[in-house]
Amino acid sequence: MLFPVYAQAKRAAQKTTCLGNLKNLGVAFQLYLNDHDDRLPDRRDLKATVADGYRPWTGWPPSDPRAGWLVEPFAPYIRGDVWSCPSARSAWANEVRVAQVVEEVRTTYWLWRFDQLTDPVPRDNFWGKTPDQALADLQAENSPFIGYPNGLAEVELAVDPYFPPIGTVPQPLRGLAVHPGGRNRLMLDTHAKWFRDARLRP
User: Other C-beta atoms within 10 Å of 181: how many?
Assistant: First the structure.
């Protein structure tokens, strides 16, 4: 009788811990910007070579949003285990699209704006850009998938994993998220918040 209540409380605690992790990553991004002339990291070299390399799958997503490459450049700014959502440590442990292990650090967060290796950097990627330039590029792109952001607070920087129910996503994964019904997101102004997504399973 108490098991559903316990399970619900555990999920809520994990979601809160995950949100705290993303807030800590936001602090690390801000410290990095302070030390690098207000420019976001450009480590496409690490993206291509770290852990299991770039995009070791053939289906969705068509790029590689995993965050393992960021472990090295953020090492001076992060202490403790903030790289992995606690819900992803169990339910998603074996999903190659989610987890990367780099220098014994397990990462499960996604960085969609650092997901390609293209040179020159595409408008929807942030490699080496200032936050203001990243925003301006997204506004110029006006992508139907991203929309037109009015400010840094509307631009996603990091997110916990989710699989939208679209045709290119493998059937067993469609609609799944580490937190049912939505996801925690870190925004480009470095604040983090919960986002409900009606496409995802409750």
Answer: 16
Element holding 33 (H helix, E strand): helix 3-35
pLDDT for position 69: 97
CA dist 49 and 144 (Å) reads: 31
- Confirm if 173 and 155 have CB atoms less than 8 A apart: no
In the chain, the number of structural domains is: 1
What CA–CA distance (Å, rounded) separates 134 from 137?
5
Domain range for 169 is: 3-196
CB hemisphere CA count around 143 (13 angstroms): 13
Tokens of 5: 């209540």
Say if CB 196 and CB 182 are below 8 A apart: yes
Name the DSSP letter for residue 66. Answer: B
Length of the chain: 202
Asked if 160 contacts 19 with a C-beta cutoff of 8 angstroms, the reply is: no
pLDDT 10s digits, 23-54: 999 999 999 999 999 999 999 999 999 989 99
Q: Is residue 201 part of a domain?
A: no
Rounded percentage of the chain residues whose pLDDT exceeds 70: 95
